[in-house]
Amino acid sequence: MRDQRMLDPTPSGLHHGEAPLLQTLGLTKRYGDFLANDAIDIGVWPRQIHALLGENGAGKSTLVKIIYGLIQPSEGEMRWWGEKMVLSGPSEARARGIGMVFQHFSLFDNLTVAENVALGLDGKESFKDMSARLREVSNLYGLPLDPKREVWRLSVGERQRIEIVRALMQNPKFLILDEPTAVLTPQEADQLFSVLERLKAEGRAILYISHKLEEVKRLCDTATILRGGKKIATSNPQAETAASLARMMVGTDIREVKAAAGRQTTVPRLVVNDLSLEPDDPHGVRLKQISLELKGGEILGIAGVAGNGQDELFAALSGERLAQNPGTIVIDGQAAGHLSITQRRKLGAAFVPEERLGHGTAPRMKLSENALLTGHATSGMVQHGFINTAATLATVDRATEAFDVRKAKRDPEAASLSGGNLQKFIVGREILRNPAVLVVSQPTWGVDAGAAAVIRQALLDLAAKGAAVLVTSQDLDELVEITDRIAVMFHGRLSEPLPTGDADRETLGLLMGGSTLERKDAAHAVGA
Amino acid sequence: MQLVLEKRAERSNTIALISPVIAIALTIVTMSILFAVLGKNPISALRVYFIDPLTDSYSLQELVVKATPLVMIAVGLSLCYLANAWNIGAEGQLLIGAVAGSWLAVKTQGTDAGQWVMPAMLLLGAVAGALYALIPAICKVRFGASEILTSLMLVYVAELFLDYLVRGPWRDPAGFNFPTTAEFDPVATVPVLIAGGRLHLGAIIALIVVAAATVLLGRTLKGFEIRVVGAAPRAARFGGFNSNQLILLTFAISGALAGLAGIIEVAGPVGHLQPGISPGYGFTAIIVAFLGRLNPIGILIAGLFLALTFIGGEQAQIAMKIPLDVTKVFQGILLFYVLACDSLILYRFRLIFASRQVPSGTG
After folding, report:
1. In this predicted model, what pLDDT tens digit does every residue of B159-190 receive, in sequence order?
2. Predicted ipTM of the assembly
3. How many inter-chain contacts (A to B, CB under 8 Å) are there?
4. Do strands A485-490 and A498-499 pair parallel, antiparallel, or not at all (unpaired)?
5. CA distance A212 to chain B (A)
6. Do B234 and A86 touch (CB under 8 A)?
7. What is the β-pairing status of strands A222-227 and A334-335?
8. What's the pTM value of the predicted model, to 2 decimals?
9. Per-residue model confidence as pLDDT tens digits over A376-392
């Protein structure tokens, strides 16, 4: 059955006889010995939303970068309306009618919306005409934007709108979107989907990159699955189940994460009392009256769209930024708001930041040195100021064994590990210290499904042993899977936590958009 | 066809070792062209620069004498640079160290003070150098002032202060109005190692400094802190290391070593305080630090090599009438090539043949 799908790139049979708008034939990209794309054939027709599904590192980004002219293929060719197409760069792709919305926005925070859009266009019309057209296009598609507003004032969802409108202003025939819903609330994602449906109805073709299966099943009419740089299949996602799509993406069945039955919660181990903190960066978020209580054995999730104060909260909890009042943060019964990160570690806290390279580890240093980075105060790695190399290497070996960290040699540089393996090392480094409190931010961001399952299981096991675990994540599915309660961050405030069983996506989505905080705001207003 | 720089997966240790050698080779090629343009025979110029100083015992001793301050200062600077703190003002710290130590020599002159004078002078020189280096460091930590500018500007302050002292209050009354102090007493001089030679105790101190820095960087937590703060500042903060504290510490150490080098120079080979006690050791040490890969052992080798250029430069001036400034040109070109070759540690060159990718395209 799969073989059949591979032979026929148009399973629905709708497009026979008509040349695809864009077709790739044997497209291959080689980096040294590594095949990022291995002979990939896809065809995309007008009025089609074509999903490109795959895990991180499957080759999705490489493929669309080739199609957008950003990188040159090593072999193979592309056809546009059936004719051979060679792109020397993105401007040539845009001239053909290919537009792209990147996952990581390329916007200047201190410039206005219109200025940012102007920088991305070829600049033949006057700034005034362009601004007027910007307003027109954004209203036409229900993507309202104020051209005069500075970007740093906008939410992540609004910033994405700029990128989409910028692409639409070039009237593309073919639009590429790279993981567009990663930064959106469920409601914002719904709005985006109706825009995409409309673009499809206008006769445009859309290539939609994602690893969220439900979304692809709902939105896309065709899906091409990539794994390890190879095309696995092209199929109709509506005819597949989420499980069958996942199996094609991952190659095996994913290990299911299991919580120990009847986890006991004990005394409060992490308490935050009315924490307010000014940001140290002018574009940062102010933390407003954050309170939470986390017992041993419990996992609390913090949901929310990126940039609503999660980074600032992490810095305050870890002690990278100190609070004015010692009592605002209490670790295992000790007031810790004024303590440095090292002192907090000595109280039994451990931290895993979102950025693996450059924050969680020094990228160009060895794993043993990165073990020392967070272990120097507590693990007997330092004696009278001298480093005990045997102890640091032993930590690397223990983390490697316990968390199945794959690496080329015993003690390589952190930067040489894949994202998933480095994350397993970082989580392992902290969990092996048996922390009383673990604060972890985006534990499985950009990590392959296998590693993600290992990490989630480790967090559950740690809680089962009596630790308090605080997980910040933008992946609602992850939070629902492992947490006991979920709170939502919005504009520097934290909502009341909801028991995970009661927290449906609708409610969480509303909280992520700030809607039902009105009631809580009113309550705070009395105090303020 | 296209030449691109491609990022390596892991830093290349081979290149890290041979990059200074490549840089020296490229510098020698460039210098040969320069000599040819100046109308000198490149082969004989290079021989005067690099071979002749190694052929007699006097020059060999002189090589070590010149390398001593370079190595001491460069080891201190390497700690700063590893911690991402840019001390450019070692020359000023050297001069202030020399002045502070000389103060004791001048005050005890002719009083038959004991053997304690010389060690006390060295201590004073080191402390003064450290304090002088802390000025830009504190301005950086407290007010965010660029330490590159402030440390550099303080060099000129130190130069003029020294100038004032030897032309005014400390001038040797029997010195025919030359701007210099009287010759220091024997108890205020650094002893020579070989009777009648120029090689002095400073060489031993320089070796101790190299050994201590090797241990500090390789084996201690403080050394690790210095390296992490420079390599990954955010990770260092996450590790609980205070970058401001490390800026102050590394500036103080490098200032102390520069001040020590200054007073050893005055109390050793020079024998009295005068302007021009250093032919720019504090600046040349920056090149030594980078040529030596910010590694103490590497710095020892690089210090000897750059000392060679000083001696070779003097001999080339005498033997071939090549201006002494050519030595500075040489040192500048060398620093340029060292930094350029360092990019090969993290990147490699690759030739890309466009014709193979796009069989019949526009390429």
Report:
1. 999 999 999 899 988 888 889 998 999 999 99
2. 0.84
3. 82
4. antiparallel
5. 30
6. no
7. unpaired
8. 0.80
9. 988 889 999 999 999 99
